[in-house]
Design goal:
mainly alpha; Zincin-like; three-stranded mixed β-sheet; 61% helix; globular; binds zinc ion
Length: 117
C-alpha cells in the first residue's frame, strides 16, 4: 500500500527526531527552514499538506547534508529520502517547487553579487 502524505510527514519527523536529534515544528506562518543552532526545522502549517511534505523533505535534506548548504544538492537528496524511507511518491508539484526554489535562490545570489563592492 502507498504511504499517505500524512504518514510520510510523520515518518520524516520521527526520522529527524530519532536519527538526527532535530525537532520538526509545524506552525502557522513559520519560516520553512532548518535552524542548526537550535536543532529545529520549522514548516509553515498554513500551506497545503502536499507542499508541507515537499518542504519538509527539502529541509530534512539540509539536516542530513549539513554543513553542505547547496540548494541543488538538497533538492536532489530529497528524492533519495523518498526512496529510502518508502514515502509517498513525488508528483509534478514537487518538480515545480524545486524549480521555483532553485530559481529564486539563484536570483537572490545574483542580486547579492550585483550589490557587492
Ligand atoms: Zn533549501
Amino acid at each position: 500500500m502507498m504511504t499517505s502524505i500524512e504518514e510520510s510527514i510523520n515518518i520524516l519527523s520521527s526520522f529527524l527526531h530519532n536519527e538526527c536529534d532535530v525537532e520538526v515544528r509545524l506552525e502557522e506562518s513559520a519560516d520553512n527552514a532548518y535552524f542548526p543552532s537550535i536543532a529545529v526545522v520549522e514548516i509553515d502549517s498554513s500551506m497545503g499538506l502536499e507542499e508541507q511534505y515537499h518542504t519538509l523533505l527539502h529541509e530534512a535534506s539540509h539536516v542530513i547534508l549539513h554543513p553542505d548548504t547547496s540548494e541543488e544538492h538538497a533538492w536532489l537528496f530529497a528524492e533519495k529520502i523518498v526512496e529510502n524511507l518508502n514515502l509517498c511518491s513525488l508528483t509534478e508539484n514537487f518538480l515545480r517547487l524545486k524549480k521555483e526554489s532553485i530559481q529564486s535562490y539563484s536570483n537572490n545570489k545574483l542580486q547579492e553579487k550585483t550589490h557587492e563592492g
